């Protein structure tokens, strides 16, 4: 189903729509089969386990893909969550046309999947509330990102989960400079996005090879920017807000939602940047969590975006510290493991890992005995309860509380 409901546009909305009608984004190829692999952030069981420590109580949920573009995320959401009702919205009719073809061609289009032309700020016009909201690469392109996140927050169910991706300023310093240079050289042609792409391409073809901007583009972005759609999205976008930790949490606070955590927690470990200095670790440990995050990004300013989860209270995370609760829990292997069944495989985050023989045996038993409790499985595999807890914390095992 494809429907349309657009608000009166601001000039910024009109400019962004014009860009994406000219250059539908993202430009991933259309496939005549379901999308390959997975992004665990688009798999409901994986997200629920990461955020709340348990299997989701139901797979029959409502998902909102807010700012779906050409439907790359929507396609995965539909494929990885076959029982979910999915609504995808975007302001670009051109991008939505590609999204519909993508879902049609790959075979994931089904009843319960809806595409709708709608400005994100008007999400309140959508019926009902959503268990899961996915908003990737969109809020930073709104005229008023706070208004956008507030509009989406109103549509989140109590206890629901909200996945957000926005740009970080420190790792995008060279992009900001090139954007400004293109604007200067375009002059009266600003708003002509094809001219902007041509000017930007000419800049990189002309700059000396050892120029910092040319080197950064060549080393960091050139593969991604091979397609003009990606180049336009990066360098000639008419509306962009980049964040640092301080301004990011101003955005989060404005939403009225609770911050659960970043989806790449290893980056935000103090030990990663200061672990070899007990003195600095001691001083950093005295800082607030927000100040610790800021310290980490200042010391490792390669971060190009923030990806994190929010929730609408009530929020509770199961830690599985209670032995009896753990023994009575149902156990299943995490659905996002590449290379299974093998002891050498990639985990949910595509990080290579090596399972011990005992871990491998336990996960095999989970597959062979669906619905079995930890108590039943642990009698057949030589793992103690702490080792089983570690499987869950490493996102290799999903546990379901006793009903």
Helix/strand layout:
Elements lengths: L1 E3 L6 H12 L21 H9 L9 E5 L5 H9 L4 E6 L2 H14 L6 E5 L12 E7 L8 H9 L2 E12 L5 H14 L6 H14 L5 H10 L6 H8 L9 H11 L2 E5 L7 H5 L3 H8 L3 H11 L5 E7 L11 H6 L1 E4 L10 E3 L5 E3 L2 H12 L5 H5 L6 H9 L3 E4 L3
Parallel strand pairs: 1-4, 2-3, 2-5, 3-4, 5-6
Antiparallel strand pairs: 6-8, 7-8, 9-12, 10-11
Key features of this structure:
Rossmann fold; 403 residues; 8-stranded mixed beta sheet; alpha/beta; 17 helices; two-stranded antiparallel sheet
What is this entry, summarized?
The protein is an alpha/beta fold and about 400 residues long.
CATH architecture of the largest domain: 3-Layer(aba) Sandwich
CATH class of the largest domain reads Alpha Beta
Estimate what percentage of residues fall within beta strands.
Answer: 15-25%
* Most strands sheet: 8 strands, mixed
Pattern of helices and strands? EHHEHEHEEHEHHHHHEHHHEHEEEHHHE
What does this 3D model show about the protein?
The chain has about 400 residues and is of the alpha/beta class. It has three domains: about 1-170 and about 240-310, Vaccinia Virus protein VP39 (Rossmann fold, 3-Layer(aba) Sandwich); about 170-235; about 325-400. It is built from 17 helices and twelve strands. It has helices spanning about 10-20, 45-50, 70-80, 95-105, 145-155, 175-185, 195-205, 210-220, 230-235, 245-255, 270-275, 280-285, 290-300, 325-330, 355-370, 375-380, 385-395; strands spanning about 1-5, 60-65, 85-90, 115, 130-135, 155-165, 260, 305-310, 330-335, 345, 350-355, 395-400. The protein has an eight-stranded mixed β-sheet, with helices on one face. It has a two-stranded antiparallel ribbon with strand order 9-12.
